[in-house]
TrEMBL record:
Organism of provenance: Coleophoma cylindrospora
Pfam families associated with the record: Glyco_hydro_3
Domain Glycoside hydrolase family 3 N-terminal: 16-342
Keywords for the protein's UniProt record, in alphabetical order: Glycoprotein, Glycosidase, Hydrolase
This protein's name: (Trans)glycosidase-3
């Protein structure tokens, strides 16, 4: 990378100056300390991370940042400092100032709104506020996928458990940050979304998923954000233990940083290590060795959060590593160039020394407050309300008492209610290693927030409120007395899946309410999760369940207004929980237009490439050779046998395609060949709109007898891919809800021999074929083809018949092998043989993608009979010989039916792809389309 950049300033030839730019450090204090001054002046430190320990007010922060930049300027730094902080919103904000800095929902809370536009606006507003005080980098977005959502400490800091949804909201936030002028840092690569915690503070949390599992899930948001222009990446401090990788510390491993992140995912930005002061990491490796290992692994910035002595040790360690020849000067220059390039995009001395400050924050504040209210109101989610208890203003009489039960919770960032409390005001709470990973900046007790929640509820109830807390001691006599008095009870939980006493307490109270209600006493129970929505998401015994996604004062204010009917909550639970809800918000309907080659061809190519980049490795072959022309059978000349109609959802302003669907009509069968949706636009009903339009169009064909999903020509997808079982199951459920028969699919396979030069027929195969005495010959062109077409027409689907016609017309690159009965000479089987350069490759991408020199054996058609297996073996054997004669290195056998697969596996073929072809009767499809268009 360094070679492609402009030459470095001569100052950077000084090794001490260059090394200083490779460190990212923090310090304790709300003013410039002698330690941070020394790091900037004497060690030429180039990047600083600010935390809650540095930030008290917006005014103080702006002054501190300006002081730091002035010190760097006066010390001769050629470029300003990179000043970064965590400002994730929800429960994780480094900077709080109720007069100037607005509170917004957590990442999961924003996702609960269901609005990518709102996600962008919140991120943009957040970035504008921190940029106003001089910050030029934000440590976000969080791109972790909660693979094991219920038990991970990240909780609401990330969008949820669906990789595509995490991608969409992460990219929306990233763009919001970037458009406000900040550089972005994705975290925590390769994922903190499914960590195993072993208990000791000296044990690293471990990722046990395989690389293939990570690629299909956790890595998807990182891959997509990189493609969209992510500036920097924080590499985590976790361990990785699976069959293909054994890594003690991800940020110290070249397998993770250089191989996985840079080579496999193509990331060329700045990589940042996790803090090397982490107890497990520093105890295991030592800071000196860890610093050298981090740079060797490929990290460009080494993070050390606060301890001056440790920071000095890290600097000396890196110098020692260079002296020992472990790290070259070229390696230092590569990271230096990356860091300087990053700084050039977000700062200059004019910007650094003249931040907009309080004046700009004052200008922004009112509009940002309105945005905050909108975001929180839209995020409040009522997952269940079986007994219609909400709003309370309609179900609770004025003289009835309301009981609020709140837990003694672990840390919460400062807020208006809590920042005046002393550090020892609350009861001490033991913190496990698991909880230390939630966030280093969360320092204040949450009791004050719940007290303010109680006051707000009391104002709504004109004093008719009872409020007490609960602990791991369970239901005490005081709780029983209050429950007996109250007509309605609100229990607040915060991460009850990890704080199990909350789960037990809530279930106990629910049982009491049920028993008391059965005895004639009114006991309405409302459970409110104020952190992870997974507390009681799947527990339907909790009849009324509300989620707020954080317990800041702003969130609690929105909760009170929702409980008492000031607005109707519209939030939905993110990820798989959102998809699994029976009652969903009405689908958005997209304008579907007919395909226009001249207008849409380039957009389709871009769409195919975008989908290919996000496809799991074992699905790439279906698309890697596809082009826009792969779907246009009649682009060059009309076909009497085929009618085709394709549809698009597009942005008419940018001409980008958001979705594409191809349809064909062959001899009474309507077929859908592909439905593509831009990965960044999934879960927005684009695919649903395309599907409905496609089915309506196919049903208009006279004489239609059935619908088919997947086809052999074009052979991009023979059906629903089976390579990812969970995704295939999800797709089949979706198609089942739209009228398709998923209980009796036709299984189809693409098979391959990757190295036919070294292939040899299994023992006895030749003798077996010869013993039956079938006759085999090879024909080219239309001469003598009538019997071939008659056989195919009688025993294969209509698109396979069209495939044979195209092969017969391409006589230079294609031929048909015929198998004849030794009794009467009638045809008992056929198969297409093709070489490189065949016109069929346009419509069969696998002939491009399976290898460098691919020969095809396509669509064997064999009537049922006692010798069908032998006929198949003979056709395949002759096909392999023809491929060898054409100097092919790889052989692909396409459109293999389920009953033939095992026979071919026995011959040495491997399964390349597997598909399930689905069907649907027109009447059922018509009913499904009508139901979708006219829901009850």
């Amino acid at each position: 990378m360094a070679g492609s950049e402009e030459p470095l300033d001569p100052l950077w030839e000084d090794l001490d100056w260059a090394i200083g730019q490779l460190f990212f450090m923090g310090f304790d204090g709300v003013e410039v300390t002698p330690q941070i001054r020394t790091l900037i002046e004497q060690h030429h430190l180039g990047s600083i991370l600010l935390t809650t320990k540095n930030l008290k007010t917006a005014q103080q922060t702006a002054q501190l940042v300006q002081d730091l930049q002035k010190i760097a300027r006066q010390a001769g730094h050629p470029v300003p400092l990179l000043i970064a902080l965590d400002q994730e919103n929800g429960g994780v904000n480094s900077l709080y100032d109720e007069d100037y800095i607005c509170q917004f929902p957590s990442a999961m809370g924003v996702a609960a709104t269901g609005s990518l536009e709102l996600a962008y606006e919140v991120a943009n507003a957040t970035a504008k506020e921190v940029a106003a005080v001089g910050v030029n980098m934000i440590m976000g977005p969080v791109l972790d996928v909660l693979t094991n959502a219920r038990y991970q400490p990240l909780g609401v800091r990330t969008t949820g458990d669906d990789p595509q949804e995490v991608s969409q909201y992460g990219i929306a936030a990233m763009n919001g940050y970037k458009d406000a002028g900040l550089t972005t840092c994705g975290k925590h690569f390769p994922s903190y979304g499914n960590l195993d915690f072993l208990g000791s503070s000296l044990d690293m949390p471990i990722i046990t998923e395989t690389l293939e599992q990570l690629s299909l899930g956790a890595l998807v948001p990182f891959r997509n954000a990189i493609r969209e222009g992510l500036d920097a990446m924080m590499v985590g401090g976790c361990a990785i233990a699976n069959a293909g990788m054994n890594v003690m510390h991800a940020c110290l491993s070249d397998q993770v940083v250089d191989d996985l992140l840079r080579n496999d995912l193509g990331f060329n930005g700045v990589t940042i290590s996790e803090c090397l002061e982490m107890e497990a990491l520093s105890h295991d490796i030592g800071v000196r060795g860890g610093t050298v290992m981090a740079v060797e692994a490929g990290c460009d910035l080494v993070l050390l959060c606060r301890t001056f002595a440790v920071q000095q040790e890290a600097i000396s360690g890196l110098k020692l590593g260079i002296d020992n020849g472990m790290i070259s000067r070229e390696r230092i220059n590569i990271s230096l160039q990356r860091v300087l390039t990053l700084k050039s995009r977000c700062t200059s001395w004019q910007q650094a020394l003249n931040p907009p400050g309080i004046n700009q924050l004052s200008t922004l504040h009112l509009s940002h407050l309105a945005l905050s209210t909108k975001a929180y109101d839209n995020s409040i989610t009522v997952m269940r309300d079986k007994s219609h208890l909400l709003p309370l203003s309609n179900t609770l009489y004025p003289d009835e008492e309301l009981l609020l039960l709140t837990p003694l919770v672990k840390p919460l960032p400062a807020s208006a209610a809590t920042k005046t409390m002393s550090d020892n005001a609350g009861r001490p709470v033991a913190v496990s290693m698991h909880d230390k990973w939630q966030h280093r900046s969360s320092i204040m007790s949450g009791e004050g927030v719940f007290r303010e929640l109680g006051r707000s509820l009391a104002r709504q109830r004109h004093g008719k409120l009872l409020h007490t807390s609960y602990t791991a001691n369970g239901v005490r006599p005081v709780h029983e007395n209050l429950i007996n008095r109250a007509s309605a009870i609100i229990i607040v939980t915060a991460d009850a899946n990890r704080n199990l006493y909350q789960n037990g307490f809530t279930k106990h109270v629910a049982m009491m309410c049920s028993m008391l209600s059965a005895g004639g006493k009114k006991k309405s129970l409302i459970v409110v999760s104020v952190s992870s929505p997974y507390d009681f998401a799947m527990d339907k015994s909790i009849g009324t369940y509300v989620c707020t996604f954080d317990f800041t004062e702003t969130a609690m204010s929105a909760l009170v207004r929702a409980l008492f009917g000031d607005f109707v909550p519209q939030g939905t639970l993110p990820g798989t929980l959102r998809k699994g809800r029976k009652v969903q918000k009405s689908r958005q309907h997209w304008l579907v237009e007919s395909w226009n080659h001249d207008r849409d061809h380039r957009g389709l190519q871009a769409l195919i490439e975008a989908i290919g980049k996000t496809a799991p490795p074992n699905q790439k072959s279906a698309l890697s050779g596809a082009t826009g022309s792969s779907f246009e059978l009649t682009a060059t000349e009309p076909s009497e046998a085929v009618e085709e109609s394709h549809f698009v959802v597009r942005n008419s302003s940018t001409h980008a395609l958001y979705g594409f669907c191809s349809t064909y009509f062959y001899q009474g069968v309507g077929m859908i060949g592909a439905i593509f949706v831009d990965p960044a636009k999934r879960n927005l009903s684009i695919g649903h709109s395309l599907h409905q339009r496609a089915v309506r169009g196919l049903l208009q064909n006279p004489g239609i007898q059935k619908l088919q999903l997947g086809l052999g020509l074009p052979a991009v997808y023979l059906g629903v891919p089976m390579s990812d079982l969970s995704e295939g199951a999800r797709l089949k459920r979706w198609f089942a809800s739209n009228g398709w028969d998923i209980l009796s699919p036709q299984l189809l396979y693409t098979m391959t021999i990757p190295d036919i030069a070294n292939w040899a027929p299994p023992e006895g195969l030749l003798q077996n074929v010869q013993r039956v005495s079938f006759g085999f010959d090879l024909i080219h062109g239309r001469e003598n083809s009538e019997t071939v077409l008659d056989l195919v027409k009688a025993h294969a689907s209509p698109e396979v018949l069209e495939l044979y016609r195209l092969a017969l017309d391409d006589s230079k690159a294609c031929g048909i092998v015929r198998a004849k009965s030794p009794v009467d000479g009638s045809l008992v089987g056929t198969v297409i043989i093709c070489r490189q350069g065949t016109q069929l490759a346009t419509f069969m991408p696998v002939l491009h993608s399976a290898g460098e020199a691919v020969g095809g054996i396509i669509a064997p058609v064999i009537p049922p009979g006692p010798q069908a297996t032998t006929v198949l073996q003979g056709l395949a054997l002759l096909g392999i010989r023809q491929n060898k004669a054409h100097r092919s290195t790889t052989c692909v056998l396409n459109w293999v039916q389920q009953e033939d697969r095992d026979v071919l596996l026995g011959m040495g073929f491997d399964v390349l792809e597997a598909f399930e072809e689905l069907s649907c009767v027109p009447a059922k499809a018509s009913k499904a389309v009508y139901s979708a268009a006219c829901p009850e």
